[in-house]
Write a structure and sequence with these properties.
The complex is a heterodimer of chains A (102) and B (356). Chain A has 102 residues and is of the alpha+beta class. In chain A, 60% of the residues lie in helices and 19% in strands. Chain A has 4 helices and 3 strands; from the N terminus they run αβααββα. In chain A, strand 2 and strand 3 form a beta hairpin. Chain A starts with a helix and ends with a helix. With 356 residues, chain B is mainly alpha-helical. Chain B is 64% helix and 0% strand. Chain B is elongated. Chain B starts with 6 loop residues before the first helix and ends in a 23-residue tail after the last helix. The chains are: A alpha+beta (102), B mainly alpha (356).
């Protein structure tokens, strides 16, 4: 899974967000390490939507601008859980080796 | 539209978004502009370089994602059908500059082959030679009918993929039952006979052209082919012969593709708009005449070949295969499918149970 897709799923894990909301959330979550460009964000959202991991929920007009909100689908949640477990087990393997070596 | 962006920023951003496929832009342009307005646009006259780069890179990735793989794409260019997962790409492909794209897809490989051939022929017949400029002009002329037939072509390709004009899937119908027919076949047959007669009667001229000037002869010495003409007496005859030959070649390709189309139509039963318009015939004949007159003046082969190629490509090699198969099936079953005598009248089939 692309890092962008992973972080977008993570950002949507606790509720719906709109495009810029996702960008901000990822910035905070990653401690400023991941800064999602607008193009990358919407490219990834398009992929996630067509894979039915994410769905648009509603639109809101703020100051003449349309914001579209997204949320995780059940499938998106399952994919994220699976990915988190995979990453965790990968990390655990390396950590065990590192502690054994010292 | 007020997105609260600086107008020049918005213009540039919209331009950059062209890196994305059309279907994507239609759905997301507003939303992306709104995100840009929130994230960086405040007070800016143009997007930051990194933003611009990011948009273009993401757009190209998105384009690549939806694009059919090379072999499928080549098959599609030859008139083949794409599987349903490329529907989005297909609908995009059929909009905008479709005619230009379609022409280039046929013309570029064709001209490349001719370029090689012309080198070979130059060695074989040094006073012949095939000028590429002539091919290019011929290609341009061959495109003319499609400029008028954009909607027609689009509908036909959509229908071939089982989609209606909105790009939505058509209900599936039993393929072998004709629900309507078009009388084009009635018009095509006498035309074929006329063409045959014209072809035979013009044979002496055609042969004369051939013997005096070779396959590539330039009758009036005007065009890109500069062949020294040793026998001035025959110039007019040769000119007329070229003209006639060009008309014939044009008409044959028209009639042939028409007849195939009609057969395909009869087999591809559907209750939507008839794909065959008689406008096609009119426009194509006009083009054949234009090609012929220009061809007569400039030396027939280099101009007429690509033009005919393009006119015939209205059928598309893959569709030709389908049409031939349909014709064979019709012969084998020995079932002549009745055509209505009224021009362009649609004949609904007797109520058939749906065989889903």
């Amino acid at each position: 899974m692309h890092e962008a897709s992973y972080f977008i799923l993570a950002a949507l894990a606790d509720g719906e967000r709109h495009g810029y909301g996702i960008v901000q959330d990822i910035d905070v979550m990653s401690g400023g390490r991941v800064r999602l460009g607008t193009g990358t964000l919407y490219g990834a959202l398009e992929r996630l939507t067509s894979d039915k991991l994410v769905v648009p929920t509603r639109e809101e007009v703020v100051g003449g601008r349309t914001r579209r909100f997204y949320r995780l689908t059940q499938r998106g949640r399952a994919v994220l859980v699976e990915e988190v477990e995979r990453l965790e087990s990968n990390a655990a393997v390396a950590r065990r080796r590192l502690t054994a070596a010292t | 539209m007020t997105t609260g962006l600086d107008p020049s920023y918005e213009r540039l951003a919209r331009l950059l978004l062209h890196a994305f496929p059309r279907r994507f832009r239609a759905l997301r342009t507003d939303e992306i502009l709104s995100t840009l307005a929130e994230s960086e646009a405040a007070g800016r006259k143009r997007p930051a370089l990194s933003t611009a780069f990011d948009i273009v890179a993401a757009g190209l990735r998105e384009r690549r994602r939806g694009h059919p793989p090379l072999l499928r794409w080549i098959w599609y260019c030859l008139g083949g059908t794409l599987p349903p997962e490329y529907r989005g790409w297909l609908i995009d492909d059929l909009s905008g500059w479709y005619v230009l794209r379609r022409t280039l897809r046929f013309a570029v490989p064709f001209i490349a082959v001719l370029a090689v051939l012309s080198r070979v022929m130059f060695v074989v017949a040094p006073n012949g030679g095939m000028p590429l400029a002539g091919f290019a002009i011929g290609t341009a002329i061959g495109t003319i009918p499609y400029l008028f037939l954009r909607g027609h072509l689009r509908r036909r390709v959509l229908k071939q993929h089982g989609l209606d004009e909105e790009g939505q899937p058509l209900p599936t119908l039993p393929v072998s039952v004709p629900t309507y027919c078009v009388t084009e076949a009635y018009r095509a047959r006498p035309l074929l006979v006329a063409v045959g007669i014209a072809l035979i009667s013009s044979m002496p001229f055609t042969l004369m052209t051939f013997f005096h000037h070779g396959v590539l002869g330039s009758p009036l010495g005007l065009g890109p082919v500069t062949v020294e003409n040793p026998n001035v007496d025959h110039q007019w005859a040769v000119g007329v012969a070229s003209l006639v030959a060009a008309v014939i070649v044009g008409l044959i390709s028209v009639v042939w593709s028409r007849s195939l189309w009609t057969t395909i139509e009869r087999h591809a039963a559907s209750q939507t708009t008839p794909v065959v318009d008689s406008d096609v015939l009119t426009v194509t004949v006009c083009t054949a005449v234009i090609v012929a007159s220009v061809g007569g003046a400039f030396g027939i082969v280099p101009l007429v070949l690509p033009a005919v190629m393009l006119v015939a490509s209205g059928c598309g090699p893959a569709l030709i295969a389908v049409g031939l198969r349909a014709k064979r099936l019709e012969r084998q079953s020995g079932r002549a499918i009745p055509l209505p005598l009224t021009r362009r009248r649609m004949v609904p089939a007797p109520a058939q149970p749906r065989q889903d």
